[in-house]
Amino acid sequence: MDNVSNIVNTxxxxxxxxxxxxxxxxxxxxxxxxxxxxxxxxxxxxxxxxTLYIRARSPQWTHEVHFLESxxxxxxxxxxxxxxxxxxxxxxxxPPGTRKSKVEPNWEDPTFPAEPQKREDPKAPxxxxxxxxxGRELTQEIEDPEMRDSLARVIAAVKRAQEDKERGKDARE
Length: 173
Description:
2 domains; elongated; single chain; GMP Synthetase, Chain A, domain 3; three-stranded mixed sheet; mainly alpha
């Protein structure tokens, strides 16, 4: 019988999900890799073409991320065990009609959440859509319940993202 890691790796490779899972993991790992202070003032938004896009509370935090970029990239790639992250781009959201030159030095993004965004509660009852069912089916052989549930949620999230992307393509055609 194959061990769990071989089964998971085979499923990820056969279905072409490995890249998407790693991209999602790069976003999910941001808070852990960035540390509590940076994570409290930044949000990982998305990962595209080797670049992790970060939203910062203020211009000062975009500079801080820029100064820490090489260390953060090394930590992320170390956790992913693959040199996936090539760049980190941080930005702030300026109020409509405001020029960068007119922003006060201590300005903060008024739309930045006061509380960090809460991720899906791992103890919450599982969703029962097709993606969740498929994720649970693919991970049923994993003995460790925490690992099984975590991987099932990641697989389901990737499947949902693929479905959303396909729906977007269909709407454009």
